[in-house]
Amino acid sequence: MENSSEIVSFVLAAYGNVGDFKYLYFIIILFWYVSICVANTVLIVVIHVDRRLHEPMYILLSNLCVNEIKAGTSLYPLLLSQMFSDSHEVTLPWCFLQMCSLYTGAPAEFWSLAAMAYDRYISICHPLRYNVIMNTERVFKIILLVWVFSFVIFILSFSFIFSLKFCGNNIENVYCEHQLIIKLSCSGSAQNSISIIIFVIMSIFIPFSLISVSYVKILTVCRKTSTENKQKAMTTCTPQIVSVSNLFVGCIFHSINFRLLISQVPDEVNIILPMYMLICQPMLTPFMYGFNLPKIRQSCKRFLFKRK
After folding, report:
1. Which of 31, 69, 250, 273 lies closest to 173, judged by CA?
2. Which pTM does this prediction carry?
3. I need a labelling partner for 213 at 20 to 30 A (CA). Which of 122, 162, 265, 278 fits?
4. Can you say how many angstroms the Cα of residue 164 is from the centroid of all Cα atoms in its chain?
5. What are φ and ψ of residue 147, in 5° steps?
6. End-to-end CA distance of the chain, in Å?
7. Residue 65 to residue 175: CA distance in whole angstroms
8. Are residues 253 and 276 in contact, defined by beta-carbon separation less than 8 angstroms?
9. Which of the 8 DSSP states describes residue 8?
10. Distances from the Cα of 191 to the Cαs of 162, 182, 267, in angstroms?
11. Number of C-alpha atoms within 13 angstroms, CB side, residue 58?
């Protein structure tokens, strides 16, 4: 066992020996990361440029796109830098920085979707009061609260990791995952269970409950309205429902150890599936909203093809 005072970096052991495939992996990862940044940036710029999209729903959407870029940047640059590394080492400060970025992004994602669900609830259930309740100033306050609360959740859940002393430095993953880091500590991991409970309740359970309540009330109101209003409500709500569903699929993949369920699972599967949320969600958001919301679709066409 190594002396804890000598641990200054972690080794991301899951990379193994990728051999000649590292060039293919590098191209695929780079293409996906650039695609995430471009797709989300285009949506943000379109919303910013088109004054017709300066509405609460689209402002909240642009904030969600910022978080998708942040999520991709939390993971892919490290993957790219490690692809041609021989040692696959990452210093403790950089590892902690990545962990901070990843685990503030998750609550920001869920709480952003909760804010968007609340916006749809007010728009559909209280249309006459919508402009009063969801004014621009309040929307920016909500966005600020989302980010402040995300950092507070991270500090309450995982700040104790920064003071741990480590007796090992091999992380069996391709990025700095908090549970594997805690397993390397010299002290017990009792705090780990408490931190996960706090994180899950504040990052997932509470916002999901708010999202569920919002959509139950929306569905109740929609049952009493005309077919046209039902279709309009479904058009604006469907992307959010798909996003929330996809996030929960990602949470399931992240929490399951597939080696325990299926024998002879390839290492690649056991590495990639827990990262499903970081792979799919950042690309799903701009395409779901870009292609499903008519106003954004039309604005994107004007911005990309008709702008002189």
Report:
1. 273
2. 0.88
3. 278
4. 26
5. -75, -40
6. 65
7. 22
8. yes
9. -
10. 13, 9, 29
11. 20
Residue 4 burial (CB < 10 Å; 0-12/13-18/19+)? Answer: middle
| b/e code 24-36 from CB counts within 10 Å (16+ = b) | eeeeebeebbeeb
Question: How do the pLDDT tens digits run along the chain, 308 residues long?
Answer: 444 456 788 888 777 666 677 888 889 999 999 999 999 999 999 999 988 889 999 999 999 999 999 999 999 998 888 888 777 888 888 989 999 999 999 999 999 999 999 998 998 888 889 999 999 899 999 999 999 999 999 998 888 888 888 888 888 888 888 888 888 888 756 677 788 888 889 998 999 999 989 988 888 888 777 777 777 777 777 788 888 888 888 888 777 765 555 555 666 777 777 788 889 999 999 888 776 778 888 888 887 776 54
Tracing tokens 């590394």 back to the chain, one arrives at 85
Nearest partner of 105 among 282, 300, 269, judged by Cα? 282
User: Would you state the structure tokens that stand for residue 221, as one six-digit string?
Assistant: 């109101």
Amino acid letter, 87: S
Q: Which two tokens stand for residue 36?
A: 């995430």
Please tell me what DSSP assigns to residue 274: G
